[in-house]
Input
Amino acid sequence: MRSDPSTILTTSVLISAFVSVVDTYTTYEFGEDCKYLTEYLDEDDKIYVEYNGKNVHGSCNTFQFKGESDDYLDEYKVCLTPVYFTDPDCDVSVNIKSSYFSGTEHTINCYKNKDEKYCGSQDKTFYIEFKSRSLLMSNAKFKFLVTATKVYDFFNDESDSDHNAALIGGIVGGVIFGLILITSLTGIFCWCVCRRKPSQGRVLSPVQGTANVYVQYSSQPQQNNACATVSTGTTPAVQPTTQQQTLGVTPTQPTSFQWSAPPPSYNNVMETSTTK
Output
């Protein structure tokens, strides 16, 4: 009996697709793998965590996972589903925590939770910690399936549409307010700098200058007026003023000029010298 070539081709494609899907699964084993970094997964990822009785070093007894996708504003929670858990001697236990140093939130051992699915907190890291009472190899074996479930879609969640709109509006409003504030502060600063800058050709302001009064009297004795020169720090100004009314003091009158006798002539001087 000959097989149909199309049937063979279809079967080969299905087998290849199945193998490729199976190969995408990732498995971490306690006692075999040592992973210090957080493993990120989305709704399409499936990760297995297992234990096959090997000795587990204290520095490699924890695996951590967190849900994340390309839309970083979306939020996930990580869930663990036991595939099987066998521990006839009750030697091991598995603790679920939200951080390395936090308390235990969920425990799986030979007494409880061997078949129950457990999901961690929303948008929190999921820590799986292995504990053993024996330092030697154990008869215990288990296998868990780790998946991520989206619990918050930032763009498509209708129940939070108002919240999303308010968040976007708040971000845009904050940016606009920041630009207005920066512009206002810049304008005030420039105004203050320009106001304090002295004008060209100005040496000293009238307020800062000290008024110096200079009194200049007329050389003519018959006039009773004086000129007062007032300096205010800028160009001096000469103003006529009355001595007694403006200055409040009576200046000393200049002494009148008296004509003296002219000097002797040359002939008189010579005659006097000859006579002597």
